[in-house]
Amino acid sequence: MEKNWAERLAEYRAVLTRRELDLIDFISTQPLEACFLRQNELCARAGVSKPVVISCFRRLGYTDYQSFLGGLRGFYSGPIDSAQASSAALKDVTDVASLVSQALDVEAATVETLRRHLQAAQVEALARAILAAGGVYLYAEGTGFEPAHYLHQRLRRCGLRSFLVGADRLHLLDDLGPLGRGDLFMTFFYTQDGDLIADLFDLVRSRGGGTVLVTGTPDPDLYRRTDYHVFVPRGQWNFKNSMAGPMAFAQILLLAVEFLGGADLRDRLRRLESIRKLFGSRKKEEVS
Question: Residues 35, 72: contact at Cβ < 8 Å?
């Protein structure tokens, strides 16, 4: 079996030079960024030369830069259970104050990574697709469920047809039964089976629907199958279940929908809030 990134480091770290270790330190602290950098960009961000990068990945047993990136992506995007994540997160923690500081640093770094990768044109195109869709079908499991659920609830509040599907995977196809031409299928892909997502994309497109992939995992095959794909990180590998990135993206997308929806949509939201306040005051009167 081919050794993963961590196993290669454990085996060959002793033969790496000081500059090569500097490169490893950068990758270890910014893995989600490093996975997407071209070779010259990695040199600039890590503060090392191209020969250092080349010698480093060769010492670790990679034949070229692309296989080196593939090793990084495979490791940092791979599954890690809650016990492993907790152990890694608490490794250097000495008290609650240091825990809070470390966690906030990771959350801030995640949002900063999102800032660098998320393009306004992507957000606008996706928001317009949501507004034009007959219905929006949102599917996610694990980490992706919370932003999917949030979007589902808020899109309904905007007067759009939104469906949260796949709560029971056995009935996933039943949930997608009404989906047809002009509808949009959107998934937050962090823990699901990639083959299942690929099959769902093919099904949706066969019915004339559009597909959207939101993910922190680089997967060229899934990218090719989608109409829209957006890279949204969910934290460093040792804080893998960080919600800062996915929830920030969901909020940004929702705000874009409200903005592009125009005065009519915003008037609807204001009327709805007025009704909610009136309903709330009546409930308080009943209780008193």
Answer: yes
